[in-house]
Amino acid sequence: MSEQSGQERTEDATPKRKEDSRKKGQVPRSKEFNTLISLLSAGVGMLIFGREIIDDIILLLRDHLSFGYATALNEASMSAALLDACISTLVLLSPLFILLLCTALLAPISLGGWVFSASQFAPKAERISPIKGLGRIFSVKSLVELVKAIFKFIAVASVTVYVIMLALDDIFAMPLLPMEQVFGTTGTLFIWCFLGFSSVLIVVAMLDIPYQIWDFNRQLKMTKQEIKDEMKETNGKPEIKSAIREKQQEFARQRMMTQVPTADVIITNPTHYAVALRYEQFGVGAPKVVAKGKGLIAKNIRGIAEEHGIALFSAPPLARALYASTEINQEIPGNLFLAVAQVLAYIFQLQKIKSHTRVKPKAPKNLPIPAEYQDVINKQFNSSANSSFNSSDQYRGNS
């Protein structure tokens, strides 16, 4: 897709792209690392079971290669002896075979983890496409595999020739040695070859593992358009998200408006901001903001409050401070307790006057607003003033 559109894959794969690739069974693998682990496990197995296996094989050869003239001429007896020797050999080597089998199954998990995907077995047109096949043959990956194969062949051949040259005299003397010494010499040659092969594979695997991870991430790279398409698929189109967000905000405003009748007082700006407070006089919590808004929302809050007979108290600095510091259904901050307490005390005294004939209390003035809210208050005041000025200019222009 990116090649057809002319875009280059310059962006790293997203988590979704990596997860989708993993579901398809595509994870970084290193055949060199798997071969190294298998070879090392074979070496460990020989260290554990080698002496016992060699001793048992010597006894096995003595028992099964020693038979009489009559047995040698009997085809059935020779077949039975050969079958018995094969079964005994398999039994002797079974611990080593089981270790190698477990290693072959577990080694790939160490790089990329355990992944099984049926899609890897499904037929794909690109696997039989001549054009795709030529592309794979002349790809960078094929070139790297060729270089690795040549390096391994040269290195293994060099190690083998070097070991043979060192033990050339012992090899020529083997036909004259007892069987125990022959097996000992063969074991020594095997150990030296094993160490040489392992050293070569360690170097190759250390270079191959980071390359395979890099190549895998390179193949997963995406174009900018693919990332945009994925974001649309995952999160939806921006227009739809915006519509959903507006709908959610509308529902939230409607729920908020239903809480206005439960408020004890509405602290106003008096026109641009409105904050509805509720306080449980016999509770243990602080006053709580049940609704707040500015502009048209503030006007609606004041209208609902007037319909339900809820007191309106004009305190612009306090209204702005509460609006900026407290979210809906949250308690007011502690540094505004004193100012809110004076307002609530005044409101509760007014409520008592309605039920009893008493002198009307004086409204509190110069409420103690902490200095930390002054920047917010001034900013909101300037914004409100500019809004009012623009509205008046528009009104005069219309007139």
Automatic annotation (TrEMBL):
Gene Ontology cellular-component terms listed: plasma membrane
Membrane-spanning residues: 33-54, 96-117, 149-168, 188-214
Keyword RNA-binding: no
InterPro entries for this protein: FlhB, T3SS_substrate_exporter, T3SS_substrate_exporter_C
SUPFAM superfamilies with a match to the protein in the record: EscU C-terminal domain-like
Main location: membrane
Topology within the bilayer: Multi-pass membrane protein
Spans annotated as Disordered: 1-27
Biological processes annotated in GO: bacterial-type flagellum assembly; protein secretion
Keywords from the named record: Bacterial flagellum biogenesis, Bacterial flagellum protein export, Cell membrane, Cell projection, Cilium, Flagellum, Membrane, Protein transport, Transmembrane, Transmembrane helix, Transport
Compartments where located: Cell membrane
Gene3D superfamilies noted in UniProt: secretion proteins EscU
Basic and acidic residues: compositionally biased ranges: 1-23
UniProt record similarity statement: Belongs to the type III secretion exporter family.
Role according to the record: Required for formation of the rod structure in the basal body of the flagellar apparatus. Together with FliI and FliH, may constitute the export apparatus of flagellin.
Protein name (record): Flagellar biosynthetic protein FlhB
Source species of the chain: SAR86 cluster bacterium
